[in-house]
Amino acid sequence: MLNCKQASQLASRAMDERLPFWKNASLKLHLLLCRSCSKFTQQLIFLRKASRNSKDFQNFQLSDKAKQRISKTLNDKQIP
Amino acid sequence: MCDKTNLNVQTWLEDYGDYLFSYALLKIKNRHQAEDLVQETLLAAITAKNTFSNRSSVKTWLTGILKHKIIDAYRRQGRETAIDDLIDQDGSDNLDYFFRTNGSWIDKPDVFSNPESALQQEEFYQVFQQCLSGLKPRQADVFIAKEIYGMSNKDICKDFSLSSTNVWVLMHRARLSLSNCMKTYWTD
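The joint structure predicted for all components is written out below.
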């Protein structure tokens, strides 16, 4: 039987790759019995959504204005 | 020849501008300054174009230049301690902060009561960004590359010179920290 530390590691790994059959089965069993780890798994899915969205919320994007300014500076630099 | 060079640099801004910007923003926490750092980085890259070797990807090379620019910026601000933080390779594999020795949660994870509404709120992303800034440098680098910019594990291994085990260890710790941080600072 997995403990929560092991289960959380597998849950995180399962976000990125397909787990081997038995590992997956023991994770599923643990999640069925453990509320905390099942909540953690839901949080992982939520974090993924939040990450993908955060890009669209422009927090992580250069503004068009900044892009234009940088592009202009770079172009000026190109001309000897 | 000149045309080709010109074209390359333009794609650098298009292809890597946002990535470099988010990297700088997380370390510097000031949008305007982060924009300037992206510009300085690309300018330096144009000058040093000949030193680029195909051993690394353009992205890794640019990020390397940016790191030096950030360290310079820290120095100007007299933030010596932060430099160590930036270079920290974060090699330990310690989950003691989250789990007891028997493997049970110290602080039980929780879900938000209204996750969908959180995702629609500007404030939520500010908290999220702050939590990302609080991650160890390596964790943040890998998490951002993967979850925000959708890089594959394979590319991450190559770009950051990590084994696939390293990547999932870093990802796991980033996720544990973020989940904890969001639980603390976001109340819906």
